[in-house]
Amino acid sequence: MSRVLSLILVLIVAGAAGLFYAAPIISFYDVRSSCESQDIDALAKLIDFNTVRVSLKAQLDAGDKGLAAPAPSALNDPVGATGNAFKSVADSVGNLFNDLTNPNPKAPPKPVIDVNTYLTPKAILGLTYGVAKDANRFEPTRYDGKPPSPKTAFFSLERARLTVTDEMHGTTTFTFERHGLTHWQLVHIGLPTVESEAMKDKPAA
User: Fold this and answer.
1) Separation CA 47–CA 183 (nearest Å)
2) Triad 187, 189, 193: Cα angle to 5°
3) Which string of b and e fits 160-193 if b means at least 16 CB within 10 Å?
4) How many Cβ atoms from other residues are within 10 Å of residue 203's Cβ?
């Protein structure tokens, strides 16, 4: 009898662990399903729109090269911060001198991107399909083929990253944070960049 109880206990623990591991993937599909049904209330619970909005805006403004690391802190790294300040001044002087000696027509201003166009149900659905920066123009009725399935790139007790890869656009990364025992919320969407795709395809040394 004790052997049966032990087996049952093992099965329960294994099932709970499997469910815990699968929870972010379930949340991903819940996001996709809620987008398809235009369920705004469900999306508000599944997505931290404030943090996703901030991260997407920073990436869209940065362009294809992606985000740079934060500048050195004057409090934690005074030498690095001072060097960074001198470099900034030198770059400004160099650019000014170059403009004076090599006058060229000014480049047209970069178009202003409204990040909120990437946070509609249709656009978020496009992001889960892997269409990346084309998500604000995504039209589900014109999408051919089966939507790509997410793959787990990282998993811990508090955070999970799922990736969706599209042959034309690259790999989009979705970061979920755990809130409560089994509720996972989408907190970041990482758009593919030229550099990130190059690093991914680079063979290990």
Assistant:
1) 11
2) 150
3) bbbbbbeeebbbbbbbbbbeeeeebbbbbbbbbb
4) 4
* Structure-block tokens of residue 43: 């999306």
In angstroms, rounded to a whole number, what is the distance separating the alpha carbons of residues 20 and 169? 30
Element containing residue 86 per DSSP (H, E): helix 78-101
CB 185 within 8 A of CB 174: no
What is the rounded CA–CA span in Å between residue 123 and residue 135?
Answer: 5
Say which residues have a Cβ less than 8 Å from residue 27's Cβ, sequence separation at least 6.
Answer: 46, 176, 183, 184, 185, 186
Q: What is the pLDDT of residues 137-168, one digit of tens each?
A: 999 998 988 999 999 999 999 999 999 999 99
pLDDT in tens, 93-142: 555 556 666 666 565 566 678 999 999 999 999 999 999 999 999 999 98
